[in-house]
Amino acid sequence: MKTKRISQLALVVLLLLSSSLFSLSQADQDGYKTETVAEGLPASWAMTFLPNSDILLTQRAGALRVVRDGELIDADIAEVPGIHYAGQGGLLDVMLDQNFSENNKIYLSYSHGKKSSNTARLVSAALVATENSYKLEDFKVLFEAKPSRKTSHHYAARIAQLDDGSLLFAVGDGYNYREDAQTLDNHFGKIIRINTDGTVPQDNPFIGTEGAAPEIYSLGHRNQQGLTVVKGVIYEHEHGPKGGDEVNIIEPGKNYGWPIATFGIDYNGATITPYTEYEGMQSPLVNWTPSIAPSSLTEHNGFLYVSSLAERSIRKLDISGEAIKDQGKVFSKISERLRDIVSGPDGHLYVLTDGNEAKIIKIVEDKQNEL
Amino acid sequence: MNDFLKGLLAWIGAASVSALAASITSSVLVQNALIEVGAKIDWTTRLATISKDLVLLQALIPLLCIAFAIAFIIASFCYGKLGGSRLAWFTIAGASSFFVMLQIMVLVFDLMPFAGARDNSGLVLMCLCGAIGGWFYQRITPLSSA
Predict the structure, then answer these.
(1) What CATH number is attached to the domain comprising A179?
(2) Interchain proximity B113–A259, CB inside 8 Å
(3) Which residues contact B33 (CB under 8 A, 6 or more apart)?
(4) Is residue A85 classed exposed, middle or buried when 0-12, 13-18 and 19+ CB atoms within 10 A define those classes?
(5) Has residue A17 been placed in a domain?
């Protein structure tokens, strides 16, 4: 009887061992593994690493939080005032100044105002360490998109910084105001460029153009939620409507077409424009039709990585040549709506999932099988 | 053809006529907005685009059938109780049901998903398309089926 039990137990142990060995070999074949760094993060939108590896995290309801050693610190760093939290709005992007170690300056973007009149804002503040966390000081509004809108969609709101220190800020078309992306007298559907004190650089492309908002750097955008600078080149991606998601290289004064030229159609199937390309306008370098809903991008080991919402994927883009080559989906074990992706200081990629129970997932690549 | 069948066909016909008018109007408005910001669209392309946009009928006809069903019952009741012009009751019912339908869309989506109705002038034109449906219905239906 006893011998029978022992042999049954041995069989169970053997099965468990073989199953875990099988899993291990699967992970090895994948060439990477994933680790959940933090979870239970409600409605989070963006994250960035501090030099000490703390993670700053924005939550759309208005709180700026810290994730330290895998734990979300209870206290908010700040409740940013005047946030319009509705639709796609709220506290959105966060970015460190390129000289953060000297000036402790961070930038935040958010939708500001009320439902009937709101807009996208870019602010700066000093992040000061406290005993257990941080606090914000010297809060300063650098830019507010004009005119205000009645919708709570398409803020874009990504922030990037050029090598000369000036800031780029993506302002979306506000959904109902798409044609305004083609005119220079407003900030809808534009990428704007300002100095870190909010003043306008005098070499902006439309300085001196009558009636043009001087902050405009490029026009003809829809909802640009990916913006990064790699070796002086500005990479941007934007959501198309139904189809027509784009990756572009942004150059000053260029028109990127929306809504006169797009590969997308309206959500109800109607035509937005008869044209997929138009003279004098930049065609996308990558076109995703059907849409993947790109939410963020980051440079990592010489490649661009794009997180997506609808496709629930990470895409890898080769930017080594003149053209941008979409190498397709990578890290396919991660199959959730992804809101943000960043390259961490430890050399690993980190993704932030979407939704009310968001997670930060670390992707650890096997160096021998680097993707 | 009995009154019920006639009423049924008039109801679906009214939704179809109204949807057709709205689809064409929306397509023209969207293209006009592009022309206003500098796009050149020749007449052949304009007509082809209007034709493509008839895809909107797939969504509009069922939605308008529901909206008109409610609105025409109310119009019929009001006409019966209060009297007045049957044409006026049904035309107003058609216009107001289109308006309410669009406002419900705004409440649900928190934005206007029907591009032709993004501004006030577009909204008024869409209500006129609804009014055409109401007019069509009262023209086709005999008094007894209204």
Answers:
(1) 2.120.10.30
(2) no
(3) A179
(4) middle
(5) no
Instruction: Return d(Cα A81, Cα A87) in angstroms, integer.
Output: 18
Residue of A84, A112, A154, A237 marked active site: A154
A280 touches chain B (CB under 8 A): no
Torsion, CA A90, CA A96, CA A220, CA A327, rounded to 10: -100
CA dist A321 and B58 (Å) reads 45
Cβ A32 vs Cβ A300: under 8 Å: no
Residue B77 is part of which domain span? 3-145
The DSSP code sequence of A86-134 is: STT-SEEEEEE-TTHHHH-EEEEEEEEEETTEEEEEEEEEEEEE-SSSE
* Residue-number span of the structural domain to which A160 is assigned: 33-369
Closest to A363 in 3D by CA, of A348, A353, A352? A348
Query: Measured over all CA atoms, what is the biggest interatomic distance in chain A, rounded to whole angstroms?
Result: 96
Residue A14, in any domain of the structure: no
Length of chain B in residues, anyone? 146
Token duo for residue B111: 């934005």
Q: Is A302 exposed, middle or buried (0-12, 13-18, 19+ CB in 10 A)?
A: exposed
pLDDT in tens, chain A (371 residues): 455 666 666 655 555 544 444 444 344 457 899 999 999 999 999 999 999 999 999 999 999 999 999 888 877 887 777 899 999 999 999 999 999 999 999 999 999 999 999 999 999 999 999 888 899 999 999 999 999 999 999 999 999 999 999 999 999 999 999 999 999 999 999 999 999 999 999 999 999 999 999 999 999 999 999 999 999 999 999 999 999 999 999 999 999 999 999 999 999 999 999 999 999 999 999 999 999 999 999 999 999 999 999 999 999 999 998 899 999 999 999 999 999 999 999 999 999 999 999 999 999 998 655 44
Q: Is A112 a catalytic residue?
A: no
Q: Which of A153, A274, A278 faces B49 most closely, judged by CB atoms?
A: A274
Mutate to test the interface with B, among A179, A185, A222, A281 (most CBs of B within 10 A): A179
ipTM of the complex: 0.91
Contact status of A270 with chain B (Cβ, < 8 Å): yes
Chain B residues in contact with A175 by the CB 8 A cut-off are 111
Residue B139, helix vs strand vs coil: helix
> b/e string for A121-146 if b means 16 or more Cβ within 10 A?
bbbbbbbeeeeeebebeeeeebbbbe
How many domains would you assign to chain A?
1
- In chain B, the number of structural domains is 1
Best to test chain B binding among A268, A279, A281 (most B CBs inside 10 Å): A268
A254 neighbors A282 (Cβ within 8 angstroms): yes
- State whether B30 and A272 contact (CB < 8 Å): yes
- The shortest CB-CB distance from A151 to any of B23, B55, B111 is to B111
Q: Is the peptide bond before A274 cis (omega within 30 degrees of 0)?
A: no
